[in-house]
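tool_call predict_complex ligand=glutamine
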Amino acid sequence: MTTKSAAPAARATVYGYPRQGRDRELKKAVEGYWKGRVTADALHAVAAGLRRANWLELSGAGIAEVPTGDFSFYDHVLDTSVMVGAVPGRHRDAVAADATDGYFAMARGTQDVAPLEMTKWFDTNYHYLVPELGPDTVFVADSTKQVTELREALALGLAARPVLVGPITYLLLAKPAPGVAEDFQPLTLLDRLLPVYAEVLADLRAAGAEWVQLDEPALVQDRTPADLNTAARAYRDLGAVEDRPKILVASYFDRLGDALPVLAKAPVEGLALDFTGPAAANLAGLAAVGGLPGKRLVAGVVDGRNIWADDLQKSLTTLGTLLGLADRVDVSASCSLLHVPLDATAEKDIDPQILRWLAFARQKTAETVTLAAGLSRGTDAIAGELAANRAALSSRAESPLTRDPAVRARVAAVTDTDGRRSRPYPERAAAQRAHLGLPPLPTTTIGSFPQTTELRTARADLRAGSLDAAGYEERIRAEIREVIAFQEKTGVDVLVHGEPERNDMVQYFAEQLDGYLATRHGWVQSYGTRYVRPPILAGDISRPKPMTVRWTAYAQSLTAKPVKGMLTGPVTMLAWSFVRDDQPLADTARQVALALRDEVNDLEAAGTSVIQVDEPALRETLPLRAADHPAYLAWATEAFRLTTAGVRPDTQIHTHMCYAEFGDIVQAIDDLDADVISLEAARSHMRVARELAAHGYPREAGPGVWDIHSPRVPSAEEATALLRKGLEAIPADRLWVNPDCGLKTRGWPETRTSLENLVTAARTLRGELPTT
Ligand code: GLN
Ligand code: ZN
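tool_result ok
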């Protein structure tokens, strides 16, 4: 088959590229600069070198128009705040004294000045720094970074397209600055912001930009008609700017929906849409507006946030349907390649047969180039690539890794009963009370205790071979002994073993489950200089042997008090891994859930009466559009119940989530049917306790009374006061006393005092309870 058309030749492009460099040079340079070991000049030279290398690599691979401005020392939303002059008052002196140091002060804070708040970029695991705006915000254009980077690329003789966070998304991601009324709407600042964008656009045009890309992912979320009107006004005004580059408005992560007609009508020259998951919806939307006559359409067909080789034939078919819907159709990854690791061929430990299923940033770039060639010159022109791609896809589809008959049979046999506890909550609660014999207001922790340098060193030594398995085992056991002894002495009621054996709450389990792949160089930016290597859910998941039982059982052997078993839940396992794209997420979740269910049941059989299944990611993986929430929450809560429902009524299931904003998923929390939930609450003064109560949450809850995100030690009085607030919402026989989250990032000294204070607070309030 040959796809030929009269349209101009399709070009390949990307919106952004991994920033850190092959050997994470950027991380080393930035952290070296923070420590005073790298000069500012050296830091800037490393950055310029990395940008240049990326552009040359992209253009060498056949990318027609390289992105500029996507590079960042820390975060591109912070860069945007600098570009529009939205520097918080408390950082202004530092920025004036030294732009680089001031920038890092905004990102990380200093001894005396708090950084900007950090939060997740849409539903990815990338974190951005939240702009702080208020009615007094004055925007001032500073196009230096954008212009400099554009000039660097142009000087290499390349066609380049600056990529900026669009004004609507920038304002929608902002929050009221400290001291500003909570209901302040940053979007009301649009009229002040637009002239600044206009100035930047003019500067970029003057510097030689033909096109500029304005990213508006906030428009793929549910927006009110008023927001959409504001967006229409923004692009009408920007479209009217004289001497500006052509504007490409980019959307990704979901369908544009009602925003599509708005942007289609706007006086801009191009639109970029996500044609991966949201392909059908976006295609229908385009058809409904009669296409984009006279405009450029950039089709994000290659999945920019997962690591699988593209189905080239399928993408070509999608691209074929787009021809004729716009003046020209170009090909791209669906979003910036920032969200995937750099190069799959660096993974020497992955079987080459499996490696060809994978595509990281470098491979995805090649795919977009291939697709553009196929679109403009016909499939014959890419016959070799198509054949290799077909072979790779079928080897994946037929591999025993992706199709384990035993796992499939087990999933197929799952019934409703498997996902339901054998007794309703009230009966379980009575059985657990009798079995555990806990006091009212029982005290516990969330699982981890401080991950000391000695523990990390022991793990590194084990990997390096300088510590043998027996030596490592003894090191961990010694730590468990210490943690148990401390909790006993302090008077904690439900103990934990402290999780000293865990490098990371997802990786630890991924390494022990069949069907998961690990990478050695698959670093992805999480925030600033922090990079993570998410494991890959590659095949059917099963658990060859117990993963945590020996540690928990050892801890239990040291004490007569109950020791809580600790597991990471199925939703979080998916959220912090790269997921399969060849079956619904619900199927993968069910497989992981069954593997974890075995662990839960084995813990119970080994004498564990309390088992906690952490789901901190339940809220953050919520789809961007409300219409998609019910389907997600249905499989997510089902997976949790499948993990936990196999235990006896008198075994107590706990769960933990660490965020304060969960108002929109209270029902889902209820649907988990966990016996006890612990949540972050200290900073929000127990708001979650009131929200749970308002919802009529019938089970036990532990709103955190110690904010573990800071080294501050809460006094016993402070914890008591928070507990009193908690008691106003939740009765004493259902209220637990615990910190906000795990203690792995804390030091021992503050952990000791804080936990002692927590126990004191619980005892004080117990003394005040009416005796029945
Ligand atoms: N059990 C984990 C811990 O204590 C929970 C961590 C989390 O919620 N992110 O470390
Ligand atoms: Zn937590």
